[in-house]
Specification:
The protein has 234 residues and is an alpha+beta fold. Helices cover 37% and strands 21% of the residues. It contains 6 helices and 6 strands; from the N terminus they run αβββαβαββααα. It has a 6-stranded antiparallel sheet. It is elongated. It starts with 9 loop residues before the first helix and ends in a 21-residue tail after the last helix. About 4% of the residues have low confidence.
Amino acid sequence: MKGKEHRPSAHELIVKALHSKSAMKQDVFAGIGALFNTLREVLEEVADELGTAVRAKDERLAVSFMDKGAMACELKVAGDVVVFQMHSNVFRLDQSHSYWKNSYLEEDELRGYFGVINVYNFLSDSFKFNRERDLGYLVARLLLNKDGHFFLQGKRQLGFLYNDLPGSEMDRATLKEVVNSIILYVLEFDLLVPPYDQVNMVTVSEMNELNANLQMATGKRLGFRFQSDTDDPN
């Protein structure tokens, strides 16, 4: 007579889940945290290099780095501020993403969980003049998994330069390349004149605010969302 097949108890299933998925998420978060610390160093290095190079020809062009705490830092490049923000959670890649059809994730689905660093672009004047209604744009997301492999979601060149998850391992040199690619994209991402009919009326209150501290809402794509660009992020 065959023995009864052992069916794991709820307690055993919980312990297994903690040992596998929960431990993996701790590994991912530790990895993205270490990467963010390296990112701070790289941004400071890039700021020093670019600042020295551009000020030699034009003193008006400032490049500077600012640490904003455990989860954020920023790079000011002339009229732009690029904010790097590490998310405190670990995310599973959406099931509809094409990477799930790749053998890399099929072999180990835990590779499909990522720590995330979001990259936002603001106008430096938005902070200088405290224009709280101004818009910032998500220009890229860097996603890193438990094995140190990464890919970058973004528009235009940012979406296809770093989209080989199985073949892309993160290191300091690669991170510096990513940072330089983001800076190039931001510098090419111009401030547009808003549609005339969108700004042809203003209230007395808004004019008083405008006179006081330039509070008219401004953004590089005023009136349009990041998602409305013609090319979709990967």
